[in-house]
Structure formats: C-alpha cells, structure tokens
C-alpha cells in the first residue's frame, strides 16, 4: 500500500507543478484537463495517505494546491453562472439547466448528505439557513432549497458583489426560490444580527 500511496503523492506533485505554472485558472481545455486529472487521482478510496507524516515541502505544496483549487472552482462557477444567466434573455429558468455544470451531480449528493446530517442532529426543520461564501453559483443552497427544504429561507453571504449579482440572476426567474433565497454582500466578520 505504501508504494501505491507514494505513486499517488508523486502524481499529485506532478499535477501541482503543472497547475501552479498556468497563466490563468479560468476554464480552458488545459485547465479543465489538469483539474480533471487531479480529481481522478484523488478519488480512489483505496489509498490512505497520512498528511501529518509528509515533509514540510509537501505540506506546503498541498496547502497551495488547495488554494489553487478554490480559485479555479470560483472561476468555473462564475463561468457557468454567466452561461446560465444568459438564458434569462431567452426567457428560460436557468435553474432548469443546472445539469450543464460539470459537478452538478456531486452537489446533488452533497445536498442529500448535508440534509441527512442536519436531520440527524436537529429535531425540527430550520426556517432559515445562512450560507457563508455562497459564490456566483450557490448550488448547495439551491439543491437544499429545491429538493430537501421547501419551506426554508436561505440567506447567502458573500464578500463579492459580482458573485452575488450572478447568483441573484440565477434564481430570479424561479417563482419559488426567488422568494426564499436572499444574497447579502458583506464580510461576515463585520455582519450584525438581523
């Protein structure tokens, strides 16, 4: 198993080296291919890598890779939110086309998992939920609102006004979610109750 784990770590380091040298992390064929390879490398469940036993250099690389993944995910969400928002001009509900987002099925599974966890640890259905850092494509909020919590109000917080504008555009044509999903542009560290 150690040999396999070493091979996986080497593959991740090689991918990190390529990803960190990209001029931009915005969606493109090269970016999509590299992150697709990273995801498929990290998905197997038969590896058991103990991060605490890695060298400081590899730990730093891992931290940087997590940041790069977050940045790339932000660009990917912005890209697809813009595409879906353009459907407004065609008088369509963008939420009817969420399946074009490459990781939509992952969000469906994640939403179910989060709902199940919430149900296990709460005796009542919440009337309000807040999401922090909801981004331009707040799929977790959307999935929970559409499929699991049909009477709950969702307050989505993001520091980026452009992200909130895109997110608002996504839900604006949906007769239900447009009344239950709100987007607040603020730094939550400075937010006050209410």
Automatic annotation (TrEMBL):
Gene3D superfamilies: Vaccinia Virus protein VP39. It is an enzyme of class 2 (transferase). The keyword S-adenosyl-L-methionine applies. The keyword Transferase applies. Its EC number is 2.5.1.43. GO terms for molecular function: nicotianamine synthase activity. Keywords: S-adenosyl-L-methionine, Transferase. It catalyses: 3 S-adenosyl-L-methionine = nicotianamine + 3 S-methyl-5'-thioadenosine + 3 H(+). Pfam families: NAS. GO terms for biological process: nicotianamine biosynthetic process. InterPro entries: Nicotian_synth, SAM-dependent_MTases_sf. Synthesizes nicotianamine, a polyamine which serves as a sensor for the physiological iron status within the plant, and/or might be involved in the transport of iron. Belongs to the nicotianamine synthase (NAS)-like family. This is Nicotianamine synthase. The lineage of its organism: Eukaryota, Viridiplantae, Streptophyta, Embryophyta, Tracheophyta.
